[in-house]
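Severity: low
Component: inverse-folding endpoint
Summary: output formatting inconsistent between runs
Steps to reproduce: submit the following structure tokens with default settings.
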């Protein structure tokens, strides 16, 4: 029998897919709890739910919470109660709740005015340590290092409900861990809440009943603090520098000298997470080596290691419990064939217990395989290649997708989510190459430090040599090659178009264009300065200009799509604005899409859907793959009146965020009348004109060329104006081109806004609500005309 065609992967499926996180095993290791949330939120605040399942698979997972943002489940030491964070009392403000392990209504334990950051049960279960800021005036001045409400360490007596603060407001407490006997706490604190202050993080201990804290040691960039049977442990980089590999440190509270018990600086592997297993002297450590991921039990005194699990893919969030029959593990894992799911069971045979990927079970995924090559200077490098399902014979159109970081890794996972574009592009017919360039994780400290002061250098050569290897192996068509990425990957895409003409298209997502200004504006200036090789205040001649794509924008000839969140603090919005301005002066086609309210990682479902559509439409347009991927006519994109209202507002927000202020809006009749009218109201533009153009004569039938029908707008009315051309869809682009050309010789500036844009459009509009390759049904044309051929319908 022929193979089933499967389910078509859509943006909506990826956006609605719930991603599991934060698993916790019950004390008897029979159940596991976790949180799960969709990639994109549809309301003002994110939503997440708590799930619980038996690890033996005897019953399906049960959703414990509904509504609100419930996350971070933690079992009480006796297993009778499950605590978690939730904002059900006040959306956007997290408190601590507890529910009976057998089910029932959750009761609030802590509902502060400011959100709880994190919490931990005491070993006896009678107390909970947590962090929360004091309530402060949100309308007061923002004083650097003083404002933002530093989180204080507090202890709740579960029985009485009374809380006491153990730290003063002068330090921001980020994490805590109880001593094994419950008499004290260790905590990590920084001078201020700002993320960059992690460079000055310090480790303290304090008595659980109060008193003066005791400083143990500096712990720059530390995280994952735990207190084992006789040592404190945490993950952090080798040294003070952020551009370094991560390892695991142990601290004896008696002498306070941190000691590396994870991989040493001379070893070709990394460790970025550590957890304590109750009753177990050794600690559980996640190790990455090349593309491999494993869990080890490491002695916090001797540093000796025992491998307890080797993942066929990659895993995060590992937890463990020791039982009479052996070690039980829980974690979130993806493989080349499976989406991220919660897995649990004996260390020899953990199995998936969650079922969040069920809606995508029939999707025919691209094949994920290891990809290895050698750099130009002889380094052995690795990455991942995704081939499309049922690829045609011969070389394939290929998208190179460098990861962010740079201290990150593209591993043996399915690469299918709203923010990981691998399968989104592979299922559309592309080969996708994900190279782990120097500076990535998984190869040790020396490899990671190659990124320090080295951006726009050898790591870009690593990307190009990966492309060369894919071409030499007959995988990649050199004439249909693109590069796309987010954050550091977006920087590499921007750098690529200024250094080579090999790529036919590029997507720069939240990417760096100017390292000097990034050091001034980013929320991680210490790390950005280390990558750039200097800071503007270090004096003239620092090397950032030579590593900035904007310095070489005049050399760009490759079409570039720029995507950026208006509220991005990591790579601020001006990085995208500036690069678009620089490219606008040259021959390279450029399209800039700005997303209001979004930060470095996008959160709104509508924006994520728009990004996925934009990326695929841009690559489809410029790579022109040989196999057509247009949807059949029985697949419809249906725009309701409600959708139209939302599209108009979001288009207006795009236009406003870009800074463009049109003097008049020129609508293309007939479909553009609705778009122009709505945008006129939203943008406060009362000067709306109409241009009648005939092109379509029936369903999928059109004239050879569009024709302007009288009356034609007077050129005098348009002279010197900033014009916004509005239409419902950019299909072939012929109509928009006609109108834009009509205006361009007479107006100060002309830009185009449409609800939909199709891949084949010859015009790339500045403002697009959604990219699609489907047949579109608009609410104003879904039904036949009331009057046809001069006769009323009766």
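Observed output (run 2 of 3):
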């Amino acid at each position: 029998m022929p193979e089933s065609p499967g389910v078509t992967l859509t943006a909506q499926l990826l956006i609605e897919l719930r991603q599991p996180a934060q698993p916790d095993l019950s004390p008897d290791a029979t159940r596991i709890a976790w949180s799960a949330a969709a990639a994109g939120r549809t309301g003002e605040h994110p939503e997440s739910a708590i799930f619980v399942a038996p690890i033996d698979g005897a019953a399906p997972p049960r959703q414990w919470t509904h509504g609100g943002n419930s996350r971070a489940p933690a079992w009480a030491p006796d297993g009778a109660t499950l605590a978690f964070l939730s904002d059900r009392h006040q959306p956007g403000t997290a408190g601590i709740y507890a529910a009976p392990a057998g089910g029932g209504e959750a009761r609030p334990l802590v509902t502060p005015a400011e959100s709880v950051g994190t919490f931990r049960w005491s070993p006896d279960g009678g107390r909970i340590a947590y962090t929360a800021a004091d309530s402060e005036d949100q309308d007061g001045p923002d004083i650097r290092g003083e404002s933002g409400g530093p989180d204080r360490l507090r202890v709740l007596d579960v029985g009485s409900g009374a809380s006491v603060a153990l730290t003063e407001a002068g330090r921001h407490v980020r994490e805590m861990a109880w001593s094994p006997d419950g008499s004290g706490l260790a905590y990590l604190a920084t001078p201020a809440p700002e993320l960059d202050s992690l460079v000055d993080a310090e480790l303290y201990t304090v008595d659980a009943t109060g008193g003066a804290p005791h400083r143990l040691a500096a712990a720059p960039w530390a995280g994952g603090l735990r207190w084992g049977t006789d040592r404190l442990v945490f993950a952090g980089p080798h040294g003070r520098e952020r551009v370094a590999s991560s390892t695991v440190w142990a601290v004896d509270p008696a002498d306070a000298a941190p000691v590396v018990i994870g991989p040493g600086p001379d070893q070709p592997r990394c460790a970025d997470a550590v957890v304590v297993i109750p009753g177990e002297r050794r600690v559980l450590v996640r190790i990455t080596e090349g593309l491999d991921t494993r869990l080890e039990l490491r002695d916090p005194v001797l540093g000796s290691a025992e491998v307890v699990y080797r993942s066929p893919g990659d895993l995060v969030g590992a937890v463990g419990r020791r039982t009479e029959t052996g070690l039980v593990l829980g974690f979130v894992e993806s493989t080349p064939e499976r989406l991220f799911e919660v897995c649990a069971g004996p260390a020899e045979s953990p199995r998936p217990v969650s079922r969040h990927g069920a809606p995508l079970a029939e999707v025919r995924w691209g094949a994920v395989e290891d990809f290895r090559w050698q750099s130009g200077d002889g380094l052995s490098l690795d990455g991942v290649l995704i081939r499309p399902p049922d690829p045609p014979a011969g070389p394939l159109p290929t998208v190179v997708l460098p990861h962010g970081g740079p201290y990150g890794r593209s591993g043996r996972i399915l690469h299918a989510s709203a923010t990981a574009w691998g399968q989104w592009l592979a299922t559309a017919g592309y080969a996708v190459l994900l190279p782990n360039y120097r500076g990535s994780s998984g190869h040790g400290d020396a490899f990671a430090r190659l990124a320090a002061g080295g951006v726009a250098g050898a790591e870009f050569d690593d990307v190009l040599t990966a492309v060369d290897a894919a071409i030499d192996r007959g995988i990649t068509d050199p004439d249909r090659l693109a590069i796309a990425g987010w954050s550091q990957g977006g920087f590499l895409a921007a750098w690529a178009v200024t250094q080579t003409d090999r790529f036919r298209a590029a997507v720069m997502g939240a990417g760096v264009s100017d390292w000097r200004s990034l050091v001034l504006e980013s929320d991680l200036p210490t790390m950005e300065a280390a990558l750039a090789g200097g800071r503007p205040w270090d004096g003239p001649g620092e090397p950032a200009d030579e590593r900035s794509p904007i310095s070489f924008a005049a050399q760009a000839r490759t079409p570039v799509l720029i995507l950026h969140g208006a509220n991005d603090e990591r790579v601020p919005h001006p990085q995208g604005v500036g690069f678009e301005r620089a490219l606008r002066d040259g021959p390279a086609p450029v399209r800039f899409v700005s997303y209001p309210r979004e930060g470095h990682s996008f959160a709104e479902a509508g924006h994520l859907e728009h990004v996925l559509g934009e990326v695929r439409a841009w690559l489809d347009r410029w790579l022109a793959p040989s196999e057509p991927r247009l949807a059949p006519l029985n697949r419809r994109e249906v725009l309701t009146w409600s959708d139209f209202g939302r599209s108009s507002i979001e288009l207006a927000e795009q236009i406003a965020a870009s800074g463009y202020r049109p003097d008049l809006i020129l609508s293309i009749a007939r479909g553009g009348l609705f778009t122009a009218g709505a945008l006129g109201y939203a943008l406060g533009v009362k000067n709306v004109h109409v241009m009648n153009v005939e092109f379509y004569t029936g369903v999928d039938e059109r004239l050879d060329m569009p024709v302007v029908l009288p009356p034609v707008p007077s050129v005098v009315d348009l002279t010197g104006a900033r014009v916004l051309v509005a239409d419902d869809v950019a299909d072939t682009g012929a109509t928009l081109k006609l109108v834009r050309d009509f205006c361009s010789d007479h107006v100060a500036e002309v830009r185009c806004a449409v609800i939909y844009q199709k891949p084949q459009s010859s015009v790339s509009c500045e403002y697009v609500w959604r990219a699609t390759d489907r047949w579109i049904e608009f609410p104003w044309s879904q039904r036949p005309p009331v009057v046809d051929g001069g006769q009323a319908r009766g």
